[in-house]
Specification:
Order of helices and strands: HHHHH
Structural class: mainly alpha
Number of strands: 0
Distance between the termini: 12 Å
Shape: flat
């Protein structure tokens, strides 16, 4: 097989690749940003509800941790937009894409933590049952499979080694 026949991927410059990757990243961030912003907005209203004062101290602590995690996730997922705006036109797009990608990954991890603690709080308040941690663990496992397990599996399965 010829070298050209074996080649995979796109024939693009580093700048073209950075432009393409930036566009893909921003589309991904838009989806995650919307979700985390809606969740964070709802979380901010909880403290103003009459039932909040009746929550057990541990549930209030879970709520505070959840709000802080939501704020951090929001910051990490909005960060790539600010980064792009501040470095636009400075000839550093490949580096900006790498940094924005890392911020997005951190934001997704923080979103996972926010959703986990939100689910824990809601189920604790709604049911007061001992099965809540198991149910939360099952949902978190599902998130981990969907968000990280399947993508890593696909990457490993469909990425060829360079020495093939």
């Amino acid at each position: 097989m010829t070298e050209e026949g074996r080649r995979r991927g796109r024939n693009e410059t580093a700048e073209e690749r950075a432009d393409r990757m930036w566009g893909e990243l921003i589309q991904e961030v838009r989806v995650a940003q919307t979700g985390v912003q809606i969740l964070f907005g709802f979380l901010l209203t909880v403290v103003f509800q009459p039932k909040y004062a009746q929550l057990a101290a541990v549930d209030q602590a879970i709520y505070i941790v959840t709000v802080v995690l939501g704020a951090c996730a929001t910051g990490a997922l909005i960060g790539p937009v600010s980064l792009h705006r501040l470095v636009a036109g400075r000839q550093v797009k490949p580096q900006a894409v790498r940094l924005a990608s890392r911020m997005t990954f951190v934001g997704l991890v923080l979103l996972l933590a926010t959703m986990t603690s939100s689910l824990l709080l809601i189920l604790r308040v709604a049911t007061h049952d001992s099965y809540v941690p198991y149910l939360v663990a099952a949902v978190v496992t599902w998130y981990l499979v969907c968000w990280y397990g399947l993508p890593l599996w696909a990457c490993r399965k469909h990425t060829s080694r360079s020495d093939d």
